């Protein structure tokens, strides 16, 4: 489907809603997928192709206020990305009161939910490798477009009904010029890299987050835990983690080696996404 932006014209509110309803089935009976601070997300289908299901975010401009520019930046970032493991943005409708973002509907569950369903909250290395390969491929695509996700965590990773990965929620993502560091501390504490906490970082911050994800998938634990945020941050900044949990007794040395090369404090010593995909662990798992 062609991507486009329908802007406000003389028709004001009517133009946005009228155009939206020409293309999508949406009314008082439309299923609500979720509700947030700025609006709701609806599940519906395209009127011209009923098999084409979409999720439509309806955002209230009055509630967004200063966040409108952030939403438009997220749209621009999603518009620049096209990868099978990244949620797809289709188009935007815009009127005086609302912004309507039409996105790919991802049928499945967040990775966080899938983790809680597993025995001992752990995945086999084969399953972990399958998910991690797709995540590295997705983030490599982002980085090739100079996009830093900045909030990779299980809640922002969908596992579809056919067991494939979709990276979602680019609300904190940022376009970063090559060689220029980002300075805003953003993300979710347990998954933040040391350099994010220091306020000077690049796309390698996403690689650290993927290291945290891998550690969690094979053990059921977060690598950096503490009684308070200050303790967690101190451990992150010193890469204080261990493989002493019983679950690691059955984890291969190759998997542990990859984790140690992702959770490296100095980002220039940390593997890139492409180098991670070339690690021996992925080669061994591919033969399983």
Automatic annotation (TrEMBL):
Q: Which residues bind ATP?
A: 57
Name the coenzymes or cofactors required: Mg(2+)
Q: Does the keyword Metal-binding apply?
A: yes
Which regions form coiled coils?
A: none
Q: Which reaction does it catalyse?
A: L-threonyl-[protein] + ATP = O-phospho-L-threonyl-[protein] + ADP + H(+); L-seryl-[protein] + ATP = O-phospho-L-seryl-[protein] + ADP + H(+)
Q: Mind telling me which SMART domains this protein's record contains?
A: S_TKc
Q: Give start and end of each Protein kinase domain.
A: 27-282
Q: Kindly indicate whether the keyword ATP-binding belongs to this entry.
A: yes
Q: What Enzyme Commission number does this protein have?
A: 2.7.11.1
Q: Which domain of life is it from?
A: Eukaryota
* SUPFAM superfamilies per record: Protein kinase-like (PK-like)
Note the Gene3D superfamilies from the entry.
Transferase(Phosphotransferase) domain 1
Q: Name one GO molecular function term.
A: metal ion binding
**Keyword annotations:** ATP-binding, Calcium, Kinase, Metal-binding, Nucleotide-binding, Repeat, Serine/threonine-protein kinase, Transferase
Family to which this protein belongs: Belongs to the protein kinase superfamily. Ser/Thr protein kinase family. CDPK subfamily.
Q: How does it assemble?
A: Monomer.
What is the name of the protein in this document?
non-specific serine/threonine protein kinase
Species of origin reads: Favella ehrenbergii
């Amino acid at each position: 489907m062609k991507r486009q932006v329908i802007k406000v014209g003389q028709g004001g509110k009517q133009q946005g809603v009228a155009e939206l309803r020409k293309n999508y089935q949406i009314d008082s009976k439309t299923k609500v997928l979720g509700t947030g601070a700025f609006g709701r997300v609806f599940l519906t289908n395209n009127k011209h192709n009923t098999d084409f299901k979409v999720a439509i975010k309806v955002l209230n401009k009055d509630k967004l206020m200063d966040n409108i520019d952030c939403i438009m930046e997220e749209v621009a970032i999603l518009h620049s990305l096209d990868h099978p493991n990244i949620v797809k943005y289709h188009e935007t409708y815009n009127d005086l009161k609302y912004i309507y973002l039409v996105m790919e509907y991802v049928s499945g569950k967040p990775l966080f939910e899938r983790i809680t369903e597993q025995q001992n909250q752990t995945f086999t290395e084969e399953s972990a490798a399958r998910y991690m390969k797709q995540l590295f491929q997705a983030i490599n695509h982002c980085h090739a477009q100079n996009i830093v996700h900045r909030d990779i965590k299980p809640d922002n990773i969908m596992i579809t009904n056919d067991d494939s990965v979709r990276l979602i929620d680019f609300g904190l993502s940022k376009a970063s010029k090559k060689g220029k560091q980002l300075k805003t501390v953003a993300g979710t504490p347990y998954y933040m890299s040391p350099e994010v906490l220091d306020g000077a970082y690049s796309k390698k911050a996403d690689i650290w987050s993927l290291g945290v994800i891998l550690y969690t998938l094979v053990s059921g634990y977060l690598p950096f835990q503490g009684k308070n945020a200050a303790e967690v941050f101190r451990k992150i900044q010193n890469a204080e983690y261990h493989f002493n949990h019983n679950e690691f007794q059955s984890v291969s040395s190759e998997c542990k080696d990859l984790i140690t090369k992702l959770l490296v404090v100095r980002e220039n010593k940390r593997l890139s996404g492409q180098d991670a995909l070339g690690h021996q662990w992925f080669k061994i798992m591919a033969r399983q």
